[in-house]
Structures are given as structure tokens and as C-alpha cells.
Amino acid sequence: MPGADKETDLSERIESFLSELKRCGSGAGSLRGSAETARETTALLRRITAQARWGNAGELMEIIRKEGRRMTAAQPSETTVGNMIRRVLKIIREEYARSRGSSEETDQQESLHKLLTSGGSSEDNFRQHFTHLKANVIEAINELLTELEGTTDNISMQALEHIHSNEVIMTIGRSRTVEAFLKDAARKRKFHVIVAECAPFCQGHEMATSLCKEDIETTVIPDAAIFAVMSRVNKVIIGTQTVLANGGLRAVNGTHTLALAAKHHSTPLIVCAPMFKLSPQVPDTPYNHTKLKSVDTILYIHILSKVNAHCPVFDYVPPELITLFISNIGGNAPSYIYRLMSELYHPEDHEL
Amino acid sequence: MRFCSSPAGGGKHNSGLPVNTENEEEEEDKLVEYFRAQIRGDPDVASAVAAIRSLLEFLRRDQSETILGLRENMTQAIRRLEETDSSVAVSSGGELFLRFISLTSLEHPVRQHCTQSSCSARAQPSIASLLADLSQCKNVMIERGELFLKKISLSRGKVGKLCHTFIKDGAKILTHSSSRVVLKVLENAAADNKRFTVYVTESQPDSAGKRMAQKLRKLNIPVMVVLDAAVGYIMEKVDLVIVGAEGVVESGGVINKIGTYQMAVCSKAHNKPFYVVAESFKFVRLYPLNQQDVPDRFKYTADILKTVKDLNQEHPMIDYTPPSLITLLFTDLGVLTPSAVSDELIKLYL
Fold it and tell me: What is the distance in angstroms between the Cα of A117 and the nearest Cα belonging to chain B?
């Protein structure tokens, strides 16, 4: 029966996505980079909306939440999955509100004003059925996908405003967004780039090779030399894995050191991060949420029997060390991140 | 139906200042009695909640016949309450309630009785229908007021639920004076089977810290009372600082018991996170730039304001902590950075 086929097809795709997510943590999966993960997640959510059986907005949100919980559990450090799910949930809420004809789609947040003026009908359980809701939601998700595809280009377009001739730029590790940003500026300006190699996986080396291909003068330095070289640097431009709700970052290890060195020399620290990396998590303690990588790739194997070796993957960078966030919607200060977040996600979806 | 021709809200002098008639005095005394009874009956209730409850009761009993008269009565009543309890929270609760009345009356407009001769006789609404309009408006106000009260009574619980996840196992927490919201947060964390120690400052001149320590001991939380002067000494041992607030100002800073500013400066020097927990009805429309900017009526207790001539000889009871020293604010509207607070206030008052 076609109905059952669709269901099994859908659950197969979800299962394969989940196993991809689990594998991509070890670098073996085919999902490389958060942009691709975001696109895959959104495409899968669109498929769920189209193929799953649901009668009203409430049921759809429940299904998406359930699948979302499984996806975030498969790879908790990949926050873009959770972010996309929250975006889609917000889309569903907005489309529902629009179908109902209520004009309060702009004021979904809890606020003092709402507390004072609501007349008790604020409990909206999304139970009404609308025939065009499915089409509207799918259209909105398509718009979201188009936005996702354009993010790197939108960020690179702003490169010329920030990079000037004969500047020395420092970066760390490998970020596709920063790579595109620098390459775009290199088409019109001449500048130098210093890349910190970011041991132990030394992704900085790949970044340097890739930049060299575009005729950008690149220097690779070990992480320990960051402070020493910082006095000659004009700007620090980095990418990040996640932008947290308070304006802080969860970025590759070594970034906090880089940020502190930049602060000490009063060098501006610019973070290139597309909006889908914005997550409603707040760091509960700055030193607590470490994900550790296995250390067999590190060279001191012969002493592993005698010592414990820890290799954390991510660093927390507090918002006071960051000067500017460049995202696909423009440049913003870290203190403004809470506002961007309230526009992207609904507060009830912060906890999936 | 008897139509009262005197303008409601007490007789007005030609200078424009309202003068209380005896009736109004009685009403306000009853209001103050009601307020005091609320606090006596439920010592755990926030003073702003008790103030709003009393004002709602006053609204029910009020006999004015125009919205303007109602507002004037309310403003008088709030001023009277502030004379009884000069804390920032009562002032912010009162202003919120006044705002609530304005917003509701804008949504349910009461037609005005047109006294100009240019209005045609047909267009003038009858007296009875005007009064019906007003009573309908008042009914909506009372209904919404009840709803509002119900929601804000739940705020403390919401804040507690938000904040207790930030307390990790084995944490050492420093807090200042006695705050019911901080108590709720620590209660929730203890109920979650987390082990932590609390240091409380004594908080002179009223030794409120010792009361807080007693309450914490009842919850089986290990607690130690330290001198106010020992904050710098103890700061290296603690992991985080959590304080309550009497008022949250527009800049994102807080007004709290004296000694909070000191604690914030020390925690910044030691790089420890400084968290503030407050319910949203404590947001107040003040923008102090330094300690001197905080109005005198908040700094001293109501009795001192009435009796003492030279306030420079008195010790203030509160101080102002600027937003640059605060890491995060936990409110029932969510976890906010200090810059998000002014956004909230703008949404309400604009």
C-alpha cells in the first residue's frame, strides 16, 4: 500500500541520517561541515512534514520534537541539528498563527507586556486543522533551505569591508566560512595570513594549503607561538562550532588562548558564523562541557601506559573577548545575540 | 440611579493638587491595613505581589465614575503604600499596576459624556450607558488583574526551575543577605540531590543573613555565615555568586541590599560568575548612573524618611550594581543578559 511504503521509506531515511550523525563524530561519516548537516537536517524535516501522518499543527510539532530528540541524542556536540529543528518548529508556529489570522505573530515571546494584557486565552494548543498548513509549512522550509545555501556567500560578501590592504590576519584551525571570507577579499586586496596549526589534528595545515592556492601569503605557526606573534597581527578572524545564547562561543580548542592573547594586545576578534550556528544553550560553567577525542593519533603513544592524556575538542570563549560577529544577516555585537535568538527561536522550543 | 455630580477622586483645589476627603483617608487606611495583613499572613510572599493584591482589592472597592478618577485614586493609593514600605519592589509593582490599568482602559474605551453644547443631543450617550461602560471596563480589569496575580505568583517557581541547573555538584555558592528567590533556587537544587555548600554574608544592619542561614539549615544544606567584611577573603573559595534583587533597572543593573556592589566588584576581580535572580515584576524604570543617582526614597526605610531631617547622617539600606559586573539575570521571562533587560522594559512601556 502506498501509505505504508511512504512510512517505511521515511523511517528508513531517518535511521540512515541518525547513523550518519553518529559516524560523523569520528570523522568517518560523509557529512562534512555544519553547513551540510544543517541542509540535510532541514531536507529531512521537510520530508517528514510531507510524508508523515499528521492532522494538525500540534501533532506535527510532536512528531518533529520526537525525531529531533533522537537526532540530538545521536550526536550531542553537533548543535546545528537542534538549531534547525527549532527553526522549523518556529516556522510551524508562525504559519499556524497566520492561518488563524491572528496578528500577534510578531509577539510570540513572553514579555511583561504580554503578561499584563493577555486575557487568559494565551494557551494555544495548535489543535485546529487547516487545509493549506502543509503547503505553507513546506514552502517556508524551502525558503529556509534557500537561505542556508546562500549563507557562505552572504558572509564572504562582507569581506572587503573588514579586510584592508597589507593587513596581517590571524586565524586558527580550519573553518570553511573563514576560508571563503579570506578568498573573497583576496580577489581585490593583498594581505598576509598567519594560521595557527591547532594541534593535535593540525587542521591549520589544510587551511594554509588551501589559502596558498589562491595566492594569499600564508604562514603556519604552532599554537604555542600565538602570543609571541600577536603583537604583529592587525585582526583575528575565526570560525566557530556554535554561538551560545549569551554571545559566547564553543569553538575548536585553542580558541580561548587566541582570544585572550588578542584581548591583551587589543586586537579585534571577529567571528564569522552563519545564523544556523546560533544555539539557545547557555554555558552552565565555562569549564565543564568538554567532549574528549581519542588520543591514539597523538605522537606520545609510548608513554600512554604511564599517564592519562586528555584531548578536549572544544573551548568556551566568553563574550567579553569578542569584538564582532559577522553572520549572513550582517555584523552584530555579542551583546545583541540574545535579540537575534529571540527572532529565530520560540522560548518553549529551547528545551526540545 | 443617583448621579454623583462631583468629580471622583476627591475635591480639587484651584492649584490642581488633590486633597483627600475623609472618605478617601478611610479607604487608604483600609488599604494599608489590607497590605500589612497580606504580609503578616504569608511572610513568604513577595512585597510587590502583596502590593498588587491590595491595589486590586482597592480597585474593587473604588467608587469612581470616570477612568481619570480611577487613575487618580490609584496613584494616591500607590503613594500611600510607598510611604508604608519604601522598597523598590513595591514601587515597581505599583507602577506596573498603573500601566496595567491604562492598557486595559485603552482596549476597552469608556465613552465620554460630552458636555459641550455643540454635540447633538442624539450623539450624547445616556448616563446609564456610560456607567455600564465603566463597570464593564472595571470587570475586565478585575478579571485580568486576577489572572496577572496568578501568573506572577508562579514566577518565583519558574525562576527556581531555570537557575538550579547552573548549580553543579560540589559547588560552593556565595550569597548576600536574605532573598526568598535565592532560597527557592537553592531549594530546587537540593531537591535535585545536588551537594553544595553555601556561604551567606551576615548583612548588617539587620542581620538578615543569619535568618537566611537558619532557613537553609532547615533544608539540610551546609551553610556558613561570614562577615560582610570577609567577602574578599572568601571569594577565592567560591565557584559562583547568586544574589536576589529588590529592583532591576533599565540599564540591566540591579538594586539590592547594601553590600551587593562590593560582592560584585570582588567577584569580577576573581573572575567568578555573578548571577542575579529576580522576577519580572521587579523591572523598574530607573536609570541610575552611579550610587548617588538612586532616589533617596528607596535608599532609606519609610520610618527614617519620615522622622530624620539630615539624611546624610543615615546609612543607606540598598546600593546599585552596574550591569558590567553581572554575568546573567535569571527571570521568569528566561535567562537574560543585562542588555536584554532594557528591551523588555521598552516592550512594556512603549
Answer: 7
The range of the structural domain enclosing residue B17 comes to: 12-153
Taking CB atoms and an 8 Å limit, are A115 and B151 in contact across chains? yes
Using CA atoms, how far apart are residues B55 and B1, in angstroms rounded to an integer?
27
Residue B131 lies in a domain: yes
- Min Cα–Cα distance to chain B from A307, Å: 26
Nearest neighbour of A111 by CB, restricted to B147, B239, B348: B348
Question: In this complex, is the C-beta atom of A121 within 8 Å of any C-beta atom belonging to chain B?
Answer: no
Q: Which residue of B has its CA nearest to A351?
A: B162
ipTM above 0.85, yes or no: no
Give pTM, 2 decimals.
0.83
Closest chain A residue to B145, measured at CA:
A116
User: Pick from B153, B175, B208: which residue ends a domain?
Assistant: B153
CA–CA min distance A156, chain B (Å): 29
pLDDT band at A5 (very low <50, low <70, confident <90, very high): confident
CATH number, position B299:
3.40.50.10470
Cα distance between residue A255 and residue A249, in whole Å = 9
Instruction: Nearest by CB to B165, from A111, A116, A284: name it.
Output: A284
| Predicted pLDDT at A282 | 79
Asked if B293 and B221 sit in the same domain, the reply is yes
Nearest 5 degrees, angle CA B238-CA B242-CA B246?
150
With CB atoms and an 8 Å threshold, state whether A111 touches B148: no
Answer whether A16 touches B (CB < 8 Å).
no
